[in-house]
């Protein structure tokens, strides 16, 4: 059974549409590699050097940050949406996850191909342990080794890479999942988000702190209190890969009276 077979047609339409999930058999053959291969220093350097000019990045560190930002969207979006909205598990690993890096005409075109031979479900009363298994695989077992490699090879701050991940999770739950109509599903999503933010142990991320709660800056009031923005703590360097410079809406460089760290 291919990956789509584990979901209903409407579920797969969402996952394969905006969240860009697809079966590994459909990977981009020219612009992809198995995630574990990226842990090899030479392979990682070659990828970053190839991708840099394509996305307009002047350094490996900036390329690593922007690629990490894209991978964070692809990995957390598909995995956590399936978990919270459909109550179905995608167990992602370095060996079953494919890193695509397609980028054309100034936009990312990459998807998240994975191979998945067994549907991950749970028995009655076992959802909390099931949820921990999915989250640990996603963050500690898949993303942490990639971020460590990017940091070792390019010097890009691990704080930047983890905040790239955190802001994608915030957006997923607070914006995409907030549009769900079913109150029972929305309640489950809210409960999962609350757990991720306040109760998920640092070990599930492979760290000594929970990055989702760590990077959660209080919103800053703007326009005399008419609107608020939750600015990032770190800068992802997107503005250094655009000409003229463009800034993310939550860039700390735009925060009144503050500079990024």
TrEMBL record:
GO molecular function annotation: 2 iron, 2 sulfur cluster binding; catalytic activity
Span of domain Aerobactin siderophore biosynthesis IucA/IucC-like C-terminal: 67-212
Name recorded for this polypeptide: Siderophore-iron reductase, Fe-S cluster protein
Pfam family, one: FhuF_C
Organism: Pseudomonas frederiksbergensis
Coiled coil ranges: none
Ferric siderophore reductase C-terminal domain span: 232-253
